[in-house]
Amino acid sequence: MASIATTNEVIESTVIKAPLAQVWHLIKLPEFHKFWSAIKKTEKVTGVSDETDVVRWHFKDGSKVEVKQDEHSNLAHFITFSVILAEPALTYSGVANTIRCWPVTAGDFENSTFVEWTSKFTSDADLGVIQDAKYKRRDALKDLADAAYKGVRD
């Protein structure tokens, strides 16, 4: 019997020492491979939805996921997307992700960006899924910071 998670939500965050505009422009579903080192390539999926973007991410480990953009705001600096298909199949019913960015306007981190990645899993996700997601989000946020720093230095 699988361990049942005590929560179905993962929240990871970081402060990236780069301006909001430098970080936000990296966060586009078809371009996640440009910062997230776990992704080998991305491609737009056609014929799935006329109303929103669907993108297939090919991970370096051979897995693939199709993500659907649910919400996007250039004004509030957030994107919400959900996994609609995965190969191999997920062991749970679904997950919705939101990445939000805020400018840090004062203090030691002035002119930096606070980034939060929230993943809400369906109740059938077990503890292993939640723990795995935690570390994958941390890795992705580190990769995002590295990409933003590179842009700041260029």
From TrEMBL:
Family annotation (Pfam families):
Polyketide_cyc2
Q: Which InterPro entries match?
A: Polyketide_cyclase/dehydratase, START-like_dom_sf
Q: Which PANTHER family match?
A: BLL4707 PROTEIN (PTHR39332), SRPBCC FAMILY PROTEIN (PTHR39332:SF7)
What protein am I looking at? Bet v1-like protein
Instruction: Please name the source species.
Output: Lasiosphaeria miniovina
